[in-house]
Write a structure and sequence with these properties.
Layout (H helix, E strand, L loop, with lengths): L4 H10 L9 H19 L30 H5 L5 E2 L2 E2 L7
Antiparallel strand pairs: 1-2
Helix pairs in contact: 1-2
Amino acid sequence: MSIDTATAAKVAKLARIKVEDDDLPALAQEFNAILGFIEQLNELDVDDVAPMTSVEPMRLKRREDVVTDGNQPDKVLANAPDAREGFFAVPKVVE
């Protein structure tokens, strides 16, 4: 697959990146180089390679999933503009 300047302009527009018309050929070349690297990776035989999430095998630390109130209501409400009876107080918005 080859990327031309029109496609490079479309990708830049979709990415919300302003690219001058003079720079579009260079951008198209960079896209083509990236696609070339991807094609090289697709040529590799990785059938016997196990997927991994890290360079070193390790087990993630886990904790028991328990729902709590945080046990810090005073700290939570410290920056509230208006707090009453341990809750955030907000203006009434529904009549």
